[in-house]
Amino acid sequence: MKTLTPHQGYWLKKLGLHRGSPRLWFETNRLGSAGLLPGSRFDVVALEHGIKLVPNLHGQYGVSSKERNGRQLPVIDINSREVLAPLGEQQVVRVVVRLDGIFVLRVASEQAKAERIKRLQTKLATGEQLASASIAHGAGVLSNVAHAGFKDAGIELDMKVLCEIDAAYVEQSLNCNPVSANATPFCAPIQELVQDEWLMRQVPRVEVLEMGLPCSGASRAGKSKRGLSMMEDHPEVGHLIYAALALIQKLQPAAIVLENVEDYRVSASAQILRSQLRDMGYQVREHVLRARDFGSLENRVRWALVATTDGLPVVESVSPQGSEPGITLGALLDDVDADAPCWSSMEYLKSKEARDLAEGKGFAMQLVDANSTSVPTIRKAYNKGGSTDPYVRHPTDARLLRKLTPAEHARIKGVPETLISGMSATGAHEVLGQGVVCAPFRALFQELAECFKRLRDHGPVWIGECTCAHRLTGAIG
Question: Catalytic residues (predicted)?
Fold first, then answer.
């Protein structure tokens, strides 16, 4: 078992500037824990991400002293661009005091940011597949779209990890979703996963993370049903942003895509996510994607947050990649016999519609047919047969209606039907109804992949500041 060297202190410190060169200045008794006392000497050893001050009786540098409040404080002054070169252009450094010396290193957020970019550049240069991960995976609709979008841009993804609480969804994805074939499944609540120290040590680093956190507390219907004043009041999913951020810290993705209902963007969780990703060295952009703009019959509206590591180009916009003009629902419907048992008068729904209209509630059935050029949003609980869900009219008998089949639902959303192969109608509609319409997100992931290619071809462009320096400038010295 590896023995850890005891730490005697840790703090952040600003680097100064003197005569055009960076300056590292210490004036503190904390140096004494490493044996650096007034009159002692030391050497500076260059490290990959910083320097180490090592006590040495015949060292190149000396420790001076300064009297303050009747006490002699050790003082170290290093004012050399060459000596401090391993720290790069850092404005703030972290200082770790150990018995064997003092480490002066890049702050963790800046070091992690540089590592993500270097790892991504290396894989892009060699043509290696990029590792991906999925949180709140479901049966992998978003994962499948992510792989397709990257493939459109000529980049292959290799999913390493998928996190999903529902064992049935995990089995469905592993058996029927080709992008999940080699993934390691983490089948447990993510808030439990991040408390498992053993498991967290197994989490690999990836280049792309996609996630669709549960929207039960963020959607208007979910809030109304439970009487929530804010999303975070939801007892089961309101707090999941903490666990998601803990997984992000372990996965260290170069880019992150989160999709959710549009109302999620005004939640406290979204603001926490924006701020923490900023402090982790990401550039955050947000997009509201309307499926109709991308040629879909179903106008499902989703919010997407795209976080790219500083150094990567950002996804400023998502444009349609071309769609089939003038498509009607008939092109997506199954060939259902006119006398099939799925046709029904649905008198109970028609009666409810009449009662609702009489009471001024404004709820009405939404009927479609082969000539329809739009389809109302198809929800997770579609198979229960709600009064405002879309139903297909019988081609010859105006009294009869039927539900959309899972295969039709998949085609409307652009989801490969293989992803729901073998599922019950209820399960298939749940997977599809809580998933995305593929076209907008395929375009988004293709644009993200193009950003990766610009990094490959032109190198990193650093547009962000050292967030640590900016946040703590008034508190550290």
Answer: 215
Give residue 2's pLDDT band: very low, low, confident or very high (50, 70, 90): low
| C-alpha triplet 99, 101, 106: angle, nearest 5° | 125
**How confident is the model at residue 358, as a pLDDT?**
82
What is the pLDDT confidence band of residue 356, given thresholds at 50, 70 and 90? confident
Q: How far apart are CA 390 and CA 428, in angstroms?
A: 16
Buried b (16+ CB within 10 A) or exposed e, 58-85: ebebebeeeeeeeeebbbbebbeeebbe
CA distance 209 to 254: 8
Asked if 194 and 247 touch (Cβ cutoff 8 Å), the reply is yes
Please compute the mean of the pLDDT values over residues 356-383 and round it to a whole number.
90
Q: To the nearest whole number, what is the mean pLDDT of the chain?
A: 92
With a CB cutoff of 8 Å and minimum separation 6, the contacts of 278 are 284, 467
What percent of the chain shows pLDDT beyond 70?
Answer: 90
CA distances from 226 to 270, 380, 396 (A): 20, 17, 42
Q: Supply the pLDDT for residue 153.
A: 98
CB 70 within 8 A of CB 31: no
Distance CA 404, CA 424 (A): 14
Q: Domains (ranges, CATH) in the chain?
A: 7-106 (no CATH), 111-322+432-465 (3.40.50.150), 335-404 (no CATH)
Residue type, 175: N
3-state secondary structure 56-100: CCCCCEECEEEEECCEEEEEEEECCCCCCHHHCCCCEEEEEEECC
Residues 159 and 213 sit within 8 Å (Cβ to Cβ): no
Query: Which residue in the block uniquely carries the two structure tokens 């963007």?
Result: 265
Quote the pLDDT of residue 213: 86
Segments in 153-294 forming alpha helices (H): 167-176, 190-193, 197-202, 220-226, 240-251, 268-279
Q: Using CA atoms, how far apart are residues 266 and 410, in angstroms rounded to an integer?
A: 30
Per-residue pLDDT tens digits for 81-117: 999 999 988 889 999 999 999 999 999 999 999 999 9
Whole-angstrom distance, CA of residue 16 vs CA of residue 103: 17
Neighbouring CB atoms inside 10 A of 93's CB total 26
Question: Do 333 and 408 form a contact (C-beta atoms < 8 A)?
Answer: yes
What b/e sequence results for 160-188 when a residue is b if at least 16 CB atoms lie within 10 Å of its CB, and e otherwise? bbbbbbbeebbebbbebbebbeebebbbe
* Model pLDDT for residues 434-450, shown as the tens digit of each residue: 999 999 999 999 999 99
Q: How confident is the model at residue 333 (pLDDT cuts 50, 70, 90)?
A: very high
Question: For the stretch 205-223, what's the b/e string if a residue is b when 16 or more beta carbons lie within 10 angstroms of its beta carbon?
Answer: bbbbbbbbbbbbbbbeebb
Question: Catalytic site residues?
Answer: 215
